[in-house]
Specification:
By secondary structure, the chain is α+β, with helices and mostly antiparallel strands. It contains eight helices and seven strands. Strand 3 and strand 4 form a beta hairpin. It catalyses: L-lysyl-[protein] + acetyl-CoA = N(6)-acetyl-L-lysyl-[protein] + CoA + H(+).
Length: about 230
C-alpha cells in the first residue's frame, strides 16, 4: 500500500507540489496499518491549503471480491464533506478564500512566508467551527494520540506549534527562546494542578522543561517522518 498526501493552494500548482507520507495511519487502518485484498493499492489525499477540504483518490491494480472497504475504513479520519470528485474539488479550490474565518489578530513575514493569527468564537461562527473541525480531522494523520476525547482546541495548538517550530531558527537564541516560552505558557495552563503540587519554583521549572523537551522531540519526529524537518545548512 502507498499512502501519500499533497497540499495545494490552487489548481495551477497541483502538479508541482511534493507529496509526502502521513506520519500516522493506525486511526484509519488499525494498529497493524494493513489493508487486505489489494495489489498495487495507492491512496492519495489532496488537501486544500485554504480550507482543509480533502479530495480522496484510491487506485489499485487488482481488488479481491472480499477486499477491505478502504473508504469505510478512512471515513472517520477524514474531514466532513471530503470528496472523490476531482472536478468538484478543483472548482471549490479555485473559489476558496485565501484567509480563514474569523478576525485577523496579527500577522508577520519570515523568509518571504506570511503568517497570521485569526480569532473566532466557535459557538457564534459556524464557518470557523467547521474549519477547525476539518483541521482537527486532518491532524490525525500527523499528530499521535489526537482523538474525539481531546479538547477541541488542543489539536489546533499542537498543529500550530509544530508548523511554527519548522520555521524557527534554533541558532537564533532570542527567536528560539520566544518560541519555547510561548509553548511553555500553554503547557503551564494545561498542567497547572501538577505544577502547583510541585512546591518549589525550581521543581516547577524542571517539570516544564521536561514537558517542553518531550513535546519538541515529538514535533521533530513527526516533521521528520513527513519530510518537513528543516536541516541545518
Amino acid at each position: 500500500m502507498t499512502n501519500r498526501l499533497i497540499v495545494v493552494k490552487d489548481a495551477k500548482d497541483w502538479s508541482g507540489q511534493p507529496t509526502f507520507h502521513p506520519a500516522f495511519t493506525y486511526h484509519a487502518f488499525g494498529k497493524d496499518e494493513v489493508i487486505r485484498g489489494y495489489q498495487g493499492l495507492c491512496i492519495m489525499l489532496t488537501i486544500n491549503a485554504n480550507t482543509f477540504d480533502c479530495f480522496v483518490e484510491v487506485t489499485f491494480d487488482h481488488r479481491d471480491t472480499d477486499a477491505d472497504d478502504v473508504m469505510a475504513m478512512m471515513e472517520h479520519s477524514l474531514p466532513k464533506g471530503f470528496t472523490q470528485d476531482k472536478e468538484a474539488f478543483l472548482h471549490a479550490l479555485e473559489h476558496s478564500a485565501a484567509k480563514p474565518p474569523g478576525a485577523l489578530v496579527n500577522s508577520y513575514t519570515k523568509d518571504d512566508k506570511e503568517f497570521a493569527t485569526y480569532f473566532a468564537v466557535l459557538s457564534e461562527d459556524a464557518a470557523a467551527a467547521a474549519y477547525l473541525d476539518r483541521m482537527q480531522k486532518l491532524s490525525l494523520w500527523f499528530i499521535e494520540g489526537i482523538g474525539c476525547s481531546m479538547p477541541f482546541l488542543s489539536s489546533f495548538h499542537r498543529c500550530y506549534e509544530m508548523l511554527k517550530l519548522r520555521f524557527v531558527d534554533r541558532t537564533n537564541e532570542p527567536e528560539y527562546k520566544a518560541f519555547r516560552l510561548e509553548v511553555k505558557r500553554r503547557l503551564h495552563s494545561l498542567h497547572m494542578e501538577d505544577l502547583e503540587a510541585m512546591g518549589s519554583a525550581d521543581r516547577r521549572k524542571g517539570l516544564l522543561a521536561t514537558l517542553y523537551e518531550a513535546l519538541e522531540a515529538d514535533y521533530d519526529r513527526v516533521l521528520g517522518r513527513c519530510g518537513l524537518l528543516a536541516r541545518p545548512e
